[in-house]
Amino acid sequence: MRSVFPKKRNALWLCPVFFLLAAAPGFWLPVLANILNAKGWGSYTTLVFMVLPLSAIISPLFFSARADQMIPAEKLLAIIVGIGAILTALAFFVLEQGKNPIFFLGLFGLKSLITAPAWTLLTTIALSTSNHPEKNFGKFRVWGTLGWMAAGLIVSSLSLDLSPSVGWLTVGASLLGSMCCLLLPHTPPQGGPPKNIMDILGLRAFRLFRQRDIAVLFGTAFVFSIPLSAYFMHTPQQIRSLGCEQVAAVMTIGQITEVFAMLLMGWLFRNWRIKSIFTLALGCGMLRYLLFALGAQYDSITSILIGVALHGICWTYFFEAGRVFLSRRIDNKIRAQSQALLTLLTSGIGGLTGTAFVGWLHHTFVLQQEYENWSSYWWILTIMCGICSIGFIVGYKRKAED
Fold first, then answer.
1. Residue 213 and residue 374: Cα distance in Å, rounded?
2. N or C, which end of the chain is more exposed by having fewer CB within 10 Å?
3. 185: which DSSP letter?
């Protein structure tokens, strides 16, 4: 009988690597907006958050093509995570010293450019390790959620919610994660050397748009990522405006539900149609922002916390389930590139569009008003999520295997 884990000896190393690579941004991402405000750099918040999606547009396809064509994915992952740790140390040193914010933006941008493909490569390794990724991916991926949760709890327990020192925690997690990457299952290239510029740049993956179901998934993921940008940019600020100080710890509520969602992913794939799974996720995303709007309107922190909890379900059953869905449909020759294309459309183009849009929306409805109008801000994003959900339901035509 064929083993579910043909590389079982090394597969367990996926757990600490997911943990550490998720903890690294988990130390700073939920609190960065508040840290910038505390440093007097609040006007740079939108620019800083735009660096992340810009990086996700430029580098994931290029690096992922190398993993498909030339370099084992685990070695490439170790290299970029290690370089990212060095650049993170430099960037947060500048922030800690209160130097020119342009220096921080430059170093932060270079760090983001190098590390943007990391999660895509790790996901590719995890999906390639198991013969049945729809059953087992969640068991690996949940360790990333636990790492993110641990990071948030550590930040708040050390009272670092407004401190640039969170960057040094990120550096430590990244260096340790880089070393652990070398112990991951060997994942050699499957596609052969590049033959032309299309192969070098990883643009072959765009042929996937010829398949209707995948094109609808990609299109929905792009549009859904636009309102999603508001979650990490502005949810922490709204929570703080309601008098809650331990923002990083509160934001881990979304990861608690994400843990349960990850562990149930295998059961859901066995018993639900993929369209139903995606629809559930999109509905939770809409309800999340609806609760944020009601929480703002009635000054209800409870409503907002329930919305934060729904984020875990939304994220897991759309974006992570989407990666498993792709792994079932894509030729191994472009396995990493297909995951990178999803990253480009969501974290990249979608994230960039979303960051610019929600930045403008926040400025218009919150900053420029005599009284902060958080309710209208979240209502607009709720409507956007609703339109996205309807578009997917109408556009997706399931296949027999779905």
1. 36
2. N
3. P
The upper half-sphere exposure of residue 243, i.e. CA atoms within 13 Å in the direction of its Cβ, equals: 4
Return the pLDDT at 197: 67
d(C-alpha 68, C-alpha 192), whole Å: 7
Number of Cβ atoms within 10 Å of the Cβ of 357: 17
Taking a C-beta distance cutoff of 8 angstroms, is the pair 84, 111 a contact? yes
Q: What is the pLDDT of residue 98?
A: 83
Q: Residue 29 CA to chain centroid, in angstroms?
A: 11
Distance CA 236, CA 247 (A): 6
Tokens linked to 90: 């430099």
The rounded distance, in Å, linking the Cα atoms of 242 and 295 is 10
* The residue to which tokens 């703002």 are assigned: 296
Task: Report d(CA 183, CA 75) in Å as an integer.
Answer: 9
User: Inter-axis angle of helices 60-69 and 118-129, to 10 degrees?
Assistant: 40
The predicted-structure confidence for 80-131, as pLDDT tens digits, reads as follows 999 999 999 999 999 998 878 999 999 999 999 999 889 989 998 998 887 7
Of the candidates 230, 161, 248, 252, the one whose C-alpha atom is nearest the C-alpha of residue 374 is 230
Helix axes 351-362, 45-58, angle to 10 degrees: 170
> Which amino acid is present at 58?
I
At residue 146, the pLDDT reads: 92
What's the pLDDT at 49?
83
Let me know: does 342 contact 325? Beta carbons within 8 Å: no
pLDDT at 1 (0 to 100): 36
Mean pLDDT for back-to-back runs of 10 residues, the chain (402 residues) = 46 93 92 87 85 82 75 91 96 89 92 91 87 83 91 89 92 96 87 65 76 91 93 85 78 88 91 94 96 90 92 93 87 78 87 89 81 86 95 82 56
CB count in 10 Å sphere of residue 109: 19
How many other CB atoms are found less than 10 A from the CB of residue 245? 12
Looking at this protein, which amino acid is placed at residue 343?
Answer: T
Task: Report d(CA 59, CA 201) in Å as an integer.
Answer: 9
Cα maximum dimension of the chain: 69
Task: Compute the distance between CA of residue 141 and CA of residue 319 in angstroms, rounded to an integer.
Answer: 12
- Residue type at position 53: P
